[in-house]
């Protein structure tokens, strides 16, 4: 089959399976299998491809049609201009989360110490380390399998970060790690009952443990806002990604815990996405 015919087949198969971005995904998977770029379809659509490439392409199209996320097939996702490895043990980095990283960077100085709670693939922590100087980073996650991915990402990006396995702040208890200048977190925040209504890609293939925020979605925010200050220096900032309807509730939790200068930020879609605040300086 020619390149163009393969693309046509992939696009139809993904459309039939109800994949939202059928044309885009068909093209990206074709480029992934044939190790080509967008130019190939525009300029060389009539070129014959090998039988092996056709077989592989059919295989990945079938997988995508079964609603495996594109990123689980290609094994990577770009975030903050960096390539991150992902698999079924980590949440796929979302573009919405870049807003948290960009805002946190405004408060990040050289040599600061950063804690990323529920680090997953490590994308938030590693981006902050990549775009700052001499900062130190610790990432915590309850999933050892996720931390394997985070460590691989640190290696690929040639960044030094420490990853600790455990439940929220538990790995830091009694450890002589000092205080942090910044804590960032994108914890699980979907209400348990809502998870069944998410897209198949998310609810079938992304780790439930990275999504489920308990009955009201606020379980992790309660824990983090209540415990974080014990690990923060005065004047340090806590940045939390939130679900778009959680700004008020999370800001209230931060206020209750004594945080100051609390702000809510919107994502590129105009939805509330980040709440942050400062540990009192005095
Ligand atoms: N933003 C993710 C989603 O909508 C959820 C991320 C999370 O729970 N932290 O699927």
Care to describe what's here?
This protein is α/β, with parallel strands linked by helices and 282 residues long. It folds into two domains: 3-66; 76-279, 3-Layer(aba) Sandwich (Rossmann fold). Helix content is 38%, strand content 19%. The chain has eleven helices and nine strands. The chain has helices at 3-16, 22-34, 38-43, 51-65, 70-74, 98-106, 123-130, 144-156, 200-205, 219-227, 247-256; strands spanning 76-79, 82-85, 113-117, 136-141, 162-165, 180-185, 232-241, 260-266, 272-278. A seven-stranded mixed sheet has the order 5-4-3-6-7-9-8, with helices on both faces. A two-stranded antiparallel ribbon has the order 1-2. Helix 2 runs antiparallel to helix 4 (51-65). The longest helix has 15 residues, at 51-65. The protein is elongated. 38% of the residues are buried. The structure holds glutamine.
Key phrases:
binds glutamine; about 40% helix; Rossmann fold; about 20% strand; 7-stranded mixed beta sheet; two-stranded antiparallel ribbon; about 280 residues
Distance between the termini: 70 Å
Q: How would you name the oligomeric state of the polypeptide chains in this document?
A: single chain
Estimate percent helicity: 25-40%
Q: How would you describe the shape?
A: elongated
Low-confidence stretches: none
Please give the count of helices.
Answer: 11
Spell out which ligands are present: glutamine
């Amino acid at each position: 089959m020619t390149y163009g015919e393969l693309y046509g087949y992939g696009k139809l198969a993904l459309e039939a399976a109800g994949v939202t971005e059928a044309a885009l995904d068909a093209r990206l998977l074709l480029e992934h299998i044939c190790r080509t770029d967008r130019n190939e379809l525009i300029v060389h659509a009539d070129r014959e491809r090998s039988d092996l490439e056709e077989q592989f392409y059919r295989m990945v199209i079938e997988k995508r049609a079964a609603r495996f996320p594109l990123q689980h097939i290609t094994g990577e996702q770009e975030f903050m201009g960096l390539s991150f490895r992902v698999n079924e043990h980590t949440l796929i980095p979302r573009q919405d989360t870049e807003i948290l990283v960009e805002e946190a960077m405004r408060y990040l100085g050289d040599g600061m110490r950063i804690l990323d709670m529920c680090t997953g693939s490590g994308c938030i922590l590693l981006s902050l380390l990549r775009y700052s100087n001499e900062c130190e980073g610790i990432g915590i996650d309850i999933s050892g399998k996720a931390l394997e991915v985070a460590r691989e990402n640190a290696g690929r990006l040639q960044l030094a970060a420490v990853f600790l396995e455990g439940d929220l702040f538990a790995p830091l208890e009694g450890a002589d790690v000092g205080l942090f200048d910044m804590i960032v977190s994108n914890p699980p925040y979907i209400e348990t009952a809502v998870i069944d209504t998410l897209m198949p890609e998310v609810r079938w293939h992304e780790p439930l443990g990275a999504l489920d925020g308990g009955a009201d979605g606020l379980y992790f925010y309660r824990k983090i806002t209540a415990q974080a200050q014990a690990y923060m220096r005065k004047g340090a900032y806590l940045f939390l990604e939130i679900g778009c309807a959680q700004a008020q509730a999370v800001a209230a939790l931060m206020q209750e815990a004594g945080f100051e200068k609390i702000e809510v930020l919107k994502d590129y879609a105009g939805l509330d996405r980040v709440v942050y605040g400062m540990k009192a300086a005095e």
